[in-house]
Amino acid sequence: MGRTWVSGRGGIARKLSRREFLKVGGAGLAGAAILGSSGCGGGQGGGAEEIVFSFFPDPSGSVQALIDRFNEENEVQVRLREMPADSGQHFDQLNTEFQSGEINIDVIGGDVIWPAQFAANGFIADLSDRFTEDERGAFLPAPIEANTYEGRIYGVPWYTDAGMLYYRRDLLEAAGFSRPPGTWDELKQQARAVQEQAGTRYGYVFQGAEYEGGVVNALEYIWNSGGDVLEGEDQVVIDSPEARRGLEIQRSMVSEGVAPEGVSQYKEQESATLFLSGEAVFMRNVPRMYALASDPAESNIDPGQIGIAALPVAEEGLQSYSSLGGWNLFMNANARDPDAAYEFIRFMSDPEQQKFRSIEGSVLPSRQELYEDEDVLQNVRVAELGQDAIQNTRPRPVSPFYSDMSLRMAEQFIQSLRGDIPPEEALATLQGQLEEVIEQGRQQRA
Ligand code: GLC
Protein backbone atom coordinates (compact mmCIF):
# COMPACT_ATOMS: atom_id res chain seq x y z
CA MET A 1 0.00 0.00 0.00
CA GLY A 2 1.26 3.49 -0.79
CA ARG A 3 1.43 6.31 1.68
CA THR A 4 -2.04 6.88 3.01
CA TRP A 5 -2.53 9.80 5.28
CA VAL A 6 -5.30 9.32 7.73
CA SER A 7 -8.06 11.62 6.68
CA GLY A 8 -10.73 13.53 8.49
CA ARG A 9 -8.84 14.70 11.54
CA GLY A 10 -7.22 17.92 12.60
CA GLY A 11 -3.65 18.16 13.71
CA ILE A 12 -0.25 18.46 12.16
CA ALA A 13 -0.87 16.32 9.13
CA ARG A 14 -4.06 18.13 8.34
CA LYS A 15 -2.38 21.46 8.45
CA LEU A 16 0.85 20.39 6.79
CA SER A 17 1.34 18.28 3.76
CA ARG A 18 4.16 15.79 3.97
CA ARG A 19 6.37 18.03 1.90
CA GLU A 20 5.69 20.96 4.20
CA PHE A 21 6.30 18.79 7.21
CA LEU A 22 9.71 17.88 5.86
CA LYS A 23 10.50 21.54 5.39
CA VAL A 24 9.51 22.47 8.91
CA GLY A 25 12.59 20.47 9.88
CA GLY A 26 14.56 23.68 10.35
CA ALA A 27 14.98 22.94 14.03
CA GLY A 28 16.39 19.55 13.17
CA LEU A 29 19.22 21.00 11.14
CA ALA A 30 21.37 21.27 14.23
CA GLY A 31 21.21 17.49 14.31
CA ALA A 32 22.44 17.42 10.74
CA ALA A 33 25.56 19.26 11.73
CA ILE A 34 26.32 16.72 14.42
CA LEU A 35 25.79 13.86 12.04
CA GLY A 36 27.76 15.49 9.31
CA SER A 37 30.89 15.08 11.37
CA SER A 38 30.25 11.85 13.21
CA GLY A 39 27.94 10.00 10.87
CA CYS A 40 29.62 10.24 7.55
CA GLY A 41 33.27 9.44 7.50
CA GLY A 42 34.16 10.04 11.13
CA GLY A 43 32.02 7.53 13.06
CA GLN A 44 33.47 4.86 15.33
CA GLY A 45 32.33 2.08 13.05
CA GLY A 46 34.09 3.46 9.99
CA GLY A 47 31.37 5.81 8.79
CA ALA A 48 28.64 4.02 6.94
CA GLU A 49 26.85 5.96 4.23
CA GLU A 50 23.68 4.09 4.92
CA ILE A 51 22.14 2.68 8.03
CA VAL A 52 19.32 0.18 8.01
CA PHE A 53 16.34 0.48 10.30
CA SER A 54 13.98 -2.46 10.66
CA PHE A 55 10.34 -2.27 11.62
CA PHE A 56 7.03 -3.94 10.82
CA PRO A 57 4.75 -2.58 8.06
CA ASP A 58 3.15 0.75 8.92
CA PRO A 59 0.00 1.53 6.94
CA SER A 60 -0.09 5.12 8.25
CA GLY A 61 3.09 5.95 6.31
CA SER A 62 4.29 8.03 9.23
CA VAL A 63 7.43 5.99 9.85
CA GLN A 64 8.69 6.43 6.30
CA ALA A 65 7.80 10.14 6.43
CA LEU A 66 10.06 10.55 9.44
CA ILE A 67 12.86 8.63 7.78
CA ASP A 68 12.52 10.87 4.72
CA ARG A 69 12.79 13.84 6.96
CA PHE A 70 15.89 12.50 8.67
CA ASN A 71 17.43 11.75 5.30
CA GLU A 72 16.81 15.27 4.07
CA GLU A 73 18.55 16.68 7.09
CA ASN A 74 21.50 14.31 7.30
CA GLU A 75 24.29 12.96 5.17
CA VAL A 76 23.89 9.48 6.48
CA GLN A 77 20.87 7.91 4.87
CA VAL A 78 18.50 5.57 6.64
CA ARG A 79 16.85 2.78 4.74
CA LEU A 80 13.76 1.05 6.08
CA ARG A 81 13.72 -2.72 6.04
CA GLU A 82 10.25 -4.13 6.47
CA MET A 83 9.82 -7.02 8.89
CA PRO A 84 6.87 -9.36 9.58
CA ALA A 85 3.78 -7.84 11.22
CA ASP A 86 3.57 -10.76 13.67
CA SER A 87 5.84 -10.01 16.63
CA GLY A 88 6.89 -13.66 17.07
CA GLN A 89 7.84 -14.14 13.42
CA HIS A 90 9.62 -10.80 13.54
CA PHE A 91 11.60 -11.93 16.58
CA ASP A 92 12.51 -15.26 14.98
CA GLN A 93 13.81 -13.56 11.89
CA LEU A 94 16.01 -11.18 13.86
CA ASN A 95 17.17 -13.92 16.17
CA THR A 96 18.19 -16.15 13.27
CA GLU A 97 20.09 -13.34 11.59
CA PHE A 98 21.82 -12.36 14.83
CA GLN A 99 22.83 -15.96 15.47
CA SER A 100 24.23 -16.39 11.98
CA GLY A 101 26.21 -13.18 12.40
CA GLU A 102 24.80 -12.02 9.06
CA ILE A 103 22.59 -9.16 9.98
CA ASN A 104 22.50 -5.97 7.98
CA ILE A 105 20.34 -4.02 10.43
CA ASP A 106 21.75 -1.18 12.53
CA VAL A 107 18.71 0.12 14.37
CA ILE A 108 15.84 -2.15 15.34
CA GLY A 109 12.30 -1.02 16.02
CA GLY A 110 11.60 -3.86 18.44
CA ASP A 111 8.98 -5.22 20.81
CA VAL A 112 9.06 -4.39 24.51
CA ILE A 113 9.47 -8.10 25.37
CA TRP A 114 12.78 -8.53 23.55
CA PRO A 115 15.44 -6.53 25.40
CA ALA A 116 16.23 -9.08 28.12
CA GLN A 117 16.84 -11.89 25.64
CA PHE A 118 18.73 -9.85 23.05
CA ALA A 119 20.80 -8.21 25.78
CA ALA A 120 21.63 -11.50 27.50
CA ASN A 121 22.90 -12.82 24.15
CA GLY A 122 24.97 -9.72 23.44
CA PHE A 123 22.98 -8.95 20.28
CA ILE A 124 21.97 -5.39 21.12
CA ALA A 125 24.12 -2.56 22.44
CA ASP A 126 24.13 -1.37 26.02
CA LEU A 127 22.99 2.24 25.61
CA SER A 128 23.52 3.29 29.24
CA ASP A 129 26.28 5.80 28.44
CA ARG A 130 24.40 7.45 25.61
CA PHE A 131 20.90 7.34 27.08
CA THR A 132 21.65 8.92 30.45
CA GLU A 133 19.60 8.46 33.60
CA ASP A 134 18.55 12.08 33.38
CA GLU A 135 17.18 11.59 29.90
CA ARG A 136 15.41 8.41 30.91
CA GLY A 137 13.46 10.40 33.50
CA ALA A 138 11.53 12.11 30.70
CA PHE A 139 10.02 8.81 29.56
CA LEU A 140 7.20 6.69 31.01
CA PRO A 141 8.62 4.49 33.77
CA ALA A 142 7.10 1.19 32.57
CA PRO A 143 8.84 1.03 29.19
CA ILE A 144 12.08 2.25 30.75
CA GLU A 145 11.91 -0.64 33.14
CA ALA A 146 11.12 -3.06 30.33
CA ASN A 147 14.21 -1.87 28.43
CA THR A 148 16.44 -2.31 31.47
CA TYR A 149 18.28 -5.56 31.96
CA GLU A 150 20.59 -6.21 34.90
CA GLY A 151 20.77 -2.51 35.65
CA ARG A 152 21.75 -1.38 32.12
CA ILE A 153 19.47 0.13 29.50
CA TYR A 154 19.26 -1.44 26.05
CA GLY A 155 16.52 0.45 24.28
CA VAL A 156 14.95 3.87 23.98
CA PRO A 157 11.16 3.67 24.27
CA TRP A 158 9.59 4.82 21.03
CA TYR A 159 5.88 4.34 21.58
CA THR A 160 3.87 2.41 24.08
CA ASP A 161 0.87 0.12 23.76
CA ALA A 162 -1.90 -1.05 26.02
CA GLY A 163 -4.70 -3.50 25.31
CA MET A 164 -7.95 -1.55 25.11
CA LEU A 165 -11.64 -2.32 24.88
CA TYR A 166 -13.05 -0.64 21.80
CA TYR A 167 -16.84 -0.39 21.79
CA ARG A 168 -19.58 0.93 19.58
CA ARG A 169 -20.63 3.99 21.53
CA ASP A 170 -23.59 4.63 19.22
CA LEU A 171 -25.00 1.12 19.48
CA LEU A 172 -24.56 0.91 23.24
CA GLU A 173 -26.36 4.21 23.69
CA ALA A 174 -29.19 3.17 21.39
CA ALA A 175 -29.63 0.01 23.46
CA GLY A 176 -29.86 2.10 26.63
CA PHE A 177 -26.39 1.48 28.09
CA SER A 178 -24.86 4.62 29.49
CA ARG A 179 -21.44 3.14 30.15
CA PRO A 180 -19.21 0.40 28.79
CA PRO A 181 -19.03 -2.91 30.65
CA GLY A 182 -16.90 -3.24 33.78
CA THR A 183 -17.08 -7.03 33.97
CA TRP A 184 -16.98 -9.77 31.35
CA ASP A 185 -20.53 -10.77 32.29
CA GLU A 186 -21.70 -7.25 31.61
CA LEU A 187 -19.91 -7.31 28.29
CA LYS A 188 -21.81 -10.45 27.32
CA GLN A 189 -25.15 -8.91 28.36
CA GLN A 190 -24.53 -5.69 26.51
CA ALA A 191 -23.30 -7.53 23.45
CA ARG A 192 -26.43 -9.69 23.32
CA ALA A 193 -28.77 -6.75 23.81
CA VAL A 194 -27.08 -4.75 21.06
CA GLN A 195 -26.93 -7.72 18.71
CA GLU A 196 -30.64 -8.29 19.16
CA GLN A 197 -31.51 -4.68 18.65
CA ALA A 198 -29.12 -3.69 15.90
CA GLY A 199 -28.49 -7.06 14.28
CA THR A 200 -24.73 -6.74 14.72
CA ARG A 201 -23.11 -9.98 13.67
CA TYR A 202 -20.63 -10.54 16.51
CA GLY A 203 -20.55 -9.52 20.13
CA TYR A 204 -16.81 -9.46 20.78
CA VAL A 205 -13.66 -9.96 18.75
CA PHE A 206 -10.15 -10.23 20.09
CA GLN A 207 -6.83 -11.88 19.25
CA GLY A 208 -6.90 -15.60 19.88
CA ALA A 209 -4.46 -16.92 17.26
CA GLU A 210 -1.43 -18.96 18.23
CA TYR A 211 1.09 -16.13 18.37
CA GLU A 212 2.32 -13.39 20.71
CA GLY A 213 -0.94 -11.44 20.56
CA GLY A 214 -2.83 -14.59 21.57
CA VAL A 215 -0.57 -14.89 24.60
CA VAL A 216 -1.16 -11.26 25.49
CA ASN A 217 -4.96 -11.65 25.25
CA ALA A 218 -5.02 -14.80 27.38
CA LEU A 219 -2.77 -13.15 29.97
CA GLU A 220 -5.17 -10.25 30.20
CA TYR A 221 -8.02 -12.67 30.97
CA ILE A 222 -5.81 -14.29 33.60
CA TRP A 223 -4.65 -11.02 35.21
CA ASN A 224 -8.18 -9.62 35.19
CA SER A 225 -9.33 -12.64 37.14
CA GLY A 226 -6.59 -12.17 39.74
CA GLY A 227 -4.06 -14.68 38.38
CA ASP A 228 -0.47 -14.34 37.18
CA VAL A 229 2.37 -16.23 35.50
CA LEU A 230 5.34 -15.62 37.78
CA GLU A 231 5.80 -14.50 41.30
CA GLY A 232 9.04 -12.63 41.78
CA GLU A 233 11.53 -13.31 39.04
CA ASP A 234 11.11 -16.97 38.46
CA GLN A 235 8.54 -18.71 40.57
CA VAL A 236 5.85 -20.07 38.26
CA VAL A 237 2.34 -19.60 39.70
CA ILE A 238 0.20 -20.01 36.59
CA ASP A 239 -1.62 -23.13 37.78
CA SER A 240 -4.06 -21.27 40.03
CA PRO A 241 -7.86 -21.09 40.41
CA GLU A 242 -7.72 -17.42 39.34
CA ALA A 243 -5.88 -18.18 36.11
CA ARG A 244 -8.32 -21.01 35.48
CA ARG A 245 -11.20 -18.62 35.82
CA GLY A 246 -9.54 -16.28 33.33
CA LEU A 247 -9.21 -19.00 30.70
CA GLU A 248 -12.73 -20.22 31.40
CA ILE A 249 -14.07 -16.75 30.70
CA GLN A 250 -12.06 -16.58 27.50
CA ARG A 251 -13.38 -19.95 26.34
CA SER A 252 -16.95 -18.98 27.28
CA MET A 253 -16.79 -16.09 24.83
CA VAL A 254 -16.65 -18.66 22.05
CA SER A 255 -18.77 -21.43 23.59
CA GLU A 256 -21.57 -18.95 24.38
CA GLY A 257 -21.39 -17.44 20.92
CA VAL A 258 -20.36 -13.95 22.00
CA ALA A 259 -17.20 -14.25 19.92
CA PRO A 260 -17.02 -16.13 16.62
CA GLU A 261 -15.13 -19.42 16.43
CA GLY A 262 -12.79 -17.68 14.02
CA VAL A 263 -11.40 -15.63 16.89
CA SER A 264 -8.91 -18.44 17.46
CA GLN A 265 -7.29 -17.36 14.19
CA TYR A 266 -7.52 -13.62 14.56
CA LYS A 267 -4.57 -11.32 15.03
CA GLU A 268 -4.83 -7.53 15.47
CA GLN A 269 -5.68 -6.84 11.85
CA GLU A 270 -8.40 -9.46 11.41
CA SER A 271 -10.25 -8.32 14.52
CA ALA A 272 -9.92 -4.67 13.47
CA THR A 273 -11.27 -5.40 10.00
CA LEU A 274 -14.43 -6.91 11.48
CA PHE A 275 -14.96 -4.18 14.03
CA LEU A 276 -14.33 -1.38 11.57
CA SER A 277 -16.68 -2.91 9.03
CA GLY A 278 -19.39 -2.67 11.68
CA GLU A 279 -19.63 -6.40 12.38
CA ALA A 280 -18.79 -6.41 16.08
CA VAL A 281 -20.03 -4.55 19.14
CA PHE A 282 -16.78 -4.88 21.11
CA MET A 283 -13.15 -5.43 20.24
CA ARG A 284 -9.91 -5.76 22.14
CA ASN A 285 -7.08 -4.09 20.26
CA VAL A 286 -4.05 -1.79 20.42
CA PRO A 287 -4.29 2.00 19.96
CA ARG A 288 -2.99 2.18 16.41
CA MET A 289 -6.18 0.60 15.05
CA TYR A 290 -8.05 3.75 16.01
CA ALA A 291 -6.30 5.60 13.19
CA LEU A 292 -7.88 3.28 10.63
CA ALA A 293 -11.36 4.40 11.61
CA SER A 294 -10.65 7.79 10.04
CA ASP A 295 -9.86 6.22 6.70
CA PRO A 296 -12.94 5.44 4.61
CA ALA A 297 -10.92 2.88 2.67
CA GLU A 298 -10.41 0.93 5.89
CA SER A 299 -13.58 1.58 7.83
CA ASN A 300 -17.36 1.78 7.52
CA ILE A 301 -17.69 3.44 10.88
CA ASP A 302 -16.20 6.74 11.93
CA PRO A 303 -14.22 7.60 15.05
CA GLY A 304 -17.25 9.29 16.66
CA GLN A 305 -18.98 5.92 16.86
CA ILE A 306 -16.11 4.40 18.82
CA GLY A 307 -15.63 4.48 22.55
CA ILE A 308 -12.61 3.09 24.37
CA ALA A 309 -12.43 1.70 27.89
CA ALA A 310 -10.26 -0.45 30.11
CA LEU A 311 -10.69 -4.20 29.63
CA PRO A 312 -13.38 -5.78 31.82
CA VAL A 313 -12.61 -7.89 34.90
CA ALA A 314 -13.97 -11.20 36.19
CA GLU A 315 -15.92 -9.54 38.99
CA GLU A 316 -16.41 -6.12 40.46
CA GLY A 317 -13.62 -5.06 42.79
CA LEU A 318 -10.85 -6.65 40.75
CA GLN A 319 -8.29 -4.39 39.12
CA SER A 320 -8.34 -4.15 35.33
CA TYR A 321 -4.96 -4.67 33.70
CA SER A 322 -3.79 -4.23 30.14
CA SER A 323 -0.69 -5.81 28.83
CA LEU A 324 2.16 -3.38 28.45
CA GLY A 325 3.11 -3.42 24.80
CA GLY A 326 5.13 -1.05 22.77
CA TRP A 327 8.04 -0.64 20.43
CA ASN A 328 11.52 0.53 21.19
CA LEU A 329 14.68 1.53 19.44
CA PHE A 330 17.56 -0.90 19.89
CA MET A 331 21.00 -0.71 18.35
CA ASN A 332 22.71 -3.73 16.90
CA ALA A 333 25.77 -4.41 19.12
CA ASN A 334 27.73 -4.50 15.84
CA ALA A 335 26.13 -1.50 14.20
CA ARG A 336 28.32 -0.23 11.39
CA ASP A 337 28.27 3.34 12.62
CA PRO A 338 27.09 3.48 16.23
CA ASP A 339 27.18 7.29 16.41
CA ALA A 340 25.00 7.67 13.35
CA ALA A 341 22.73 4.86 14.50
CA TYR A 342 22.25 6.53 17.86
CA GLU A 343 21.65 9.88 16.26
CA PHE A 344 18.79 8.29 14.35
CA ILE A 345 17.44 6.74 17.56
CA ARG A 346 17.59 10.14 19.21
CA PHE A 347 15.81 11.74 16.28
CA MET A 348 12.99 9.18 16.20
CA SER A 349 12.39 9.42 19.94
CA ASP A 350 12.53 13.23 20.09
CA PRO A 351 9.35 14.97 21.21
CA GLU A 352 8.76 16.48 17.78
CA GLN A 353 8.98 13.23 15.89
CA GLN A 354 7.00 11.33 18.51
CA LYS A 355 4.28 13.88 18.31
CA PHE A 356 4.02 13.60 14.55
CA ARG A 357 3.91 9.85 14.68
CA SER A 358 1.37 9.77 17.50
CA ILE A 359 -0.96 12.05 15.60
CA GLU A 360 -0.54 10.33 12.26
CA GLY A 361 -0.26 6.74 13.42
CA SER A 362 -2.45 6.89 16.53
CA VAL A 363 0.25 5.48 18.77
CA LEU A 364 0.90 6.47 22.37
CA PRO A 365 4.01 8.55 22.99
CA SER A 366 6.68 7.25 25.34
CA ARG A 367 7.60 10.71 26.64
CA GLN A 368 5.64 11.88 29.65
CA GLU A 369 5.50 15.55 28.62
CA LEU A 370 3.54 14.68 25.49
CA TYR A 371 0.58 13.59 27.59
CA GLU A 372 0.19 17.25 28.51
CA ASP A 373 0.80 18.59 25.05
CA GLU A 374 -2.17 20.42 23.53
CA ASP A 375 -1.63 19.07 20.02
CA VAL A 376 -1.39 15.54 21.30
CA LEU A 377 -4.40 15.90 23.57
CA GLN A 378 -6.54 17.27 20.78
CA ASN A 379 -5.39 15.01 18.01
CA VAL A 380 -4.41 11.70 19.56
CA ARG A 381 -7.90 10.87 20.72
CA VAL A 382 -6.90 7.37 21.71
CA ALA A 383 -4.56 8.80 24.37
CA GLU A 384 -7.45 10.52 26.04
CA LEU A 385 -10.11 7.89 25.51
CA GLY A 386 -7.79 5.10 26.58
CA GLN A 387 -6.51 6.73 29.77
CA ASP A 388 -7.85 4.04 32.09
CA ALA A 389 -6.16 1.32 30.09
CA ILE A 390 -2.90 3.23 29.77
CA GLN A 391 -2.67 3.79 33.49
CA ASN A 392 -2.91 0.13 34.40
CA THR A 393 -0.50 -1.69 32.19
CA ARG A 394 1.27 -4.79 33.34
CA PRO A 395 4.40 -6.28 31.80
CA ARG A 396 4.66 -9.81 30.53
CA PRO A 397 7.38 -11.77 32.35
CA VAL A 398 10.67 -9.93 31.91
CA SER A 399 13.02 -12.80 31.25
CA PRO A 400 15.85 -13.75 28.90
CA PHE A 401 13.80 -16.91 28.25
CA TYR A 402 10.59 -15.12 27.49
CA SER A 403 10.36 -16.18 23.85
CA ASP A 404 10.37 -19.86 24.86
CA MET A 405 7.88 -19.22 27.64
CA SER A 406 5.66 -17.45 25.15
CA LEU A 407 5.77 -20.33 22.65
CA ARG A 408 4.61 -22.77 25.34
CA MET A 409 1.86 -20.41 26.48
CA ALA A 410 0.65 -19.87 22.91
CA GLU A 411 0.39 -23.65 22.39
CA GLN A 412 -1.68 -24.23 25.52
CA PHE A 413 -3.82 -21.11 25.34
CA ILE A 414 -5.02 -21.87 21.82
CA GLN A 415 -6.09 -25.40 22.79
CA SER A 416 -8.01 -24.07 25.74
CA LEU A 417 -9.65 -21.36 23.64
CA ARG A 418 -10.73 -23.88 21.02
CA GLY A 419 -12.14 -26.14 23.68
CA ASP A 420 -9.72 -28.95 22.76
CA ILE A 421 -8.57 -29.25 26.36
CA PRO A 422 -10.05 -27.83 29.59
CA PRO A 423 -8.38 -24.70 30.97
CA GLU A 424 -7.11 -26.56 34.04
CA GLU A 425 -5.25 -29.02 31.86
CA ALA A 426 -3.64 -26.20 29.87
CA LEU A 427 -2.52 -24.54 33.09
CA ALA A 428 -1.20 -27.70 34.74
CA THR A 429 0.82 -28.44 31.60
CA LEU A 430 2.11 -24.90 31.48
CA GLN A 431 3.14 -24.93 35.11
CA GLY A 432 5.55 -27.77 34.39
CA GLN A 433 6.70 -26.46 31.03
CA LEU A 434 7.45 -22.96 32.23
CA GLU A 435 9.38 -24.28 35.21
CA GLU A 436 11.41 -26.37 32.80
CA VAL A 437 12.09 -23.47 30.42
CA ILE A 438 13.37 -21.36 33.29
CA GLU A 439 15.45 -24.16 34.78
CA GLN A 440 17.02 -25.14 31.45
CA GLY A 441 17.68 -21.55 30.54
CA ARG A 442 19.44 -21.03 33.83
CA GLN A 443 21.62 -24.07 33.38
CA GLN A 444 22.58 -23.04 29.89
CA ARG A 445 23.63 -19.62 31.08
CA ALA A 446 25.52 -20.91 34.12
C1 GLC B 1 1.53 -5.02 20.05
C2 GLC B 1 2.38 -4.72 21.26
C3 GLC B 1 3.44 -5.76 21.44
C4 GLC B 1 2.84 -7.15 21.46
C5 GLC B 1 2.02 -7.36 20.21
C6 GLC B 1 1.32 -8.70 20.25
O1 GLC B 1 2.27 -4.81 18.90
O2 GLC B 1 2.96 -3.46 21.17
O3 GLC B 1 4.16 -5.51 22.63
O4 GLC B 1 3.82 -8.12 21.61
O5 GLC B 1 1.05 -6.34 20.08
O6 GLC B 1 0.70 -8.97 19.03
Automatic annotation (TrEMBL):
Q: Which Pfam families match?
A: SBP_bac_1
Which keywords accompany this UniProt record? Signal, Transport
Q: Which family does it belong to?
A: Belongs to the bacterial solute-binding protein 1 family.
Protein name, per record: Maltodextrin ABC transporter, substrate-binding protein MdxE
